[in-house]
Fold:
Amino acid sequence: AIQLTQSPSSLSASVGDRVTITCRASQGISSALAWYQQKPGKAPKVLIYDASSLERGVPSRFSGSGSGTDFTLTISSLQPEDFATYYCQQFNSYPYTFGQGTKLEIK
Amino acid sequence: QVQLQESGPGLVKPSETLSLTCSVSGYSISSGYYWGWIRQPPGKGLEWIGSIYHSGSTYYNPSLKSRVTISVDTSKNQFSLKLSSVTAADTAVYYCARDQNRVDYWGQGTLVTVSS
Structure:
């Protein structure tokens, strides 16, 4: 199975900061990667798919980039509602694996 | 608007079989997409369990494959999960989902606890 490693595992930041989260795949996955945001007690919500496509309705401060094995999720200017846990997921091959998550906390 | 809703027992005894059903509204399963199950143990990350196409083609996580069965009932617009020989390690919130190149629709999730 393809392993996805996210870094950092946790991150403290302030409203207005620019934040970048990295997801590294154990083998090449082309652009078959999605990013999700999860808040406590809620199902995850997709932000980015195909590595860089913004899901409809998601604010443009979220962006994704990368291909092959290295991917990034960037939040250009953190808003209070962005404090949550973020996951990447690969869709290149079964089983569709997730990264371990990155918890974004308020500084 | 596509909506998914899980249903099933919230408590299962060790060694028994966990059974959940996902009811889909706002979209016909027969029209396409893969439909799957994802779980999340309390306080932990997400684990993909498996997916099924409306034709019945299935893909399972090898870590669970010997215990998992996913089936579809297009007449009821539902799909189901069975996980056999459960242990405490199978305690989790179970989500049903529509997946293809991303999971764009999720159920609200249902907590299943394995305990005697």
